[in-house]
Amino acid sequence: MAAAPAPMPGALAVPGIEEVHLQAEHWISRLQAPDRVILDRAGIDAQNARMQALDPTLHDLETLPARLPAAQVRDAIGKLSAPPARTLYDAQGRELTGTQLAAFADNLALDAIPDMRPLEYGLVTRRADLRAFPTTERVFSSVGDTDIDRFQESALFPGDAVAVMHRSRDGQWLFVASQRYLAWIEKRFVAVGDAGQVFGYARRMPYRIVTGATVSTAYTPEQPQVSRLQLDMGVRVPVLADWPADTPVNGQHPYTSHVIELPIRDDDGRLRLVPALLPRNADTRADYLPLTARNLLLQSFKFLGERYGWGHAYDARDCSGFVSEVYRSFGVLLPRNTSAQAVSPALDRVPLTGTDGERKRRRAIAQLQVGDLIYIPGHVMMAIGRENGLTYVIHDTAGGSWRDGDGQRVQARLNGVAVTPLEPLLAGDAASYIDRITSIQRIRP
Fold this sequence. Notes:
five-stranded antiparallel beta sheet; protease; endopeptidase fold (from Nostoc punctiforme); SH3 domain-containing protein; single chain; hydrolase; 10 helices; thiol protease
């Protein structure tokens, strides 16, 4: 399919984009029924149950056996922590040596897995990286490009439950299963407790839902583990509704805040739940947001301009993390990665293959609704509306390219959450994004 003629860049130097397009209210004003509920709470609960039952990338930690065979643990680690097939470089541009790679592999301690590995359970105490190997060493595919760390997989958030499957040889890392990912996490960010305490945390009521891009707890020198703690969109924290109104929390009167409960890690690594203050002016709610087009637009635009963070690096997020966190503020569960999201059998999928021609692709694009997720290999975008014959999307992207008025391809490092029209975007010199769409996923009744 030939790429659509590119609209001329305006003052903002991105085709088809004016100041007004960067405002959620502009897209809301174009909708006939922005407050119509797309899926109510019962429908979302049913959708999540369907996702948990049908999508093979999700894990129900509570149904895991108490002890895992060594072969199962070794296989899980091997799938993630396979020897790199490409040359990798460190942050100084030096090629990783065989000795370094052997040290990473040795720290997996595969030979130390017992015949039957008892599971332990824990809660994550702060936002923490998930890694392909038990190391903080950042590695890259090329010299000078230090944004995409090939050992960075994802992140977990305060209160996320994990099942501990193995420990690294140096004792500083845990190989864990979480609901959406298996990977390595630093031990210092996991507090181990009994299963009832760990799984009961997510069921505690009442609670607050983070509806801002990020919020932070109040500063406190008395309890540093819960001081200025970052909570990202969709994180759910229990509220201590019976906290005495005149009793300070960590040295501060609580009347200007919500008294919440957060997990911390004692010196022996055990889980303890402690009170913390979440300011009342922080962008949170007493329940998940209603799933409406208005709210989808408002929530997604809260991330506008945030730096792109591959695998949730930079305390930010990538394309699939972005859409996951937007939908998490409504209580909707999505797989972690684009490869899984794009083919999930639990969603209302419109598949497109290499044999589907321009007419079918244009028809699918014309039928997009606000909140629909559009996938090309390795990337996802969210539809936000149409204007002047163009389809607009919001997405967290490392790149972006289009043709200028002379027909030359312009490569722009958008490198963040951006609004762009879909039609001008190029996936290479000869293919447009529309040519490369593999599926459209919808969260619908």
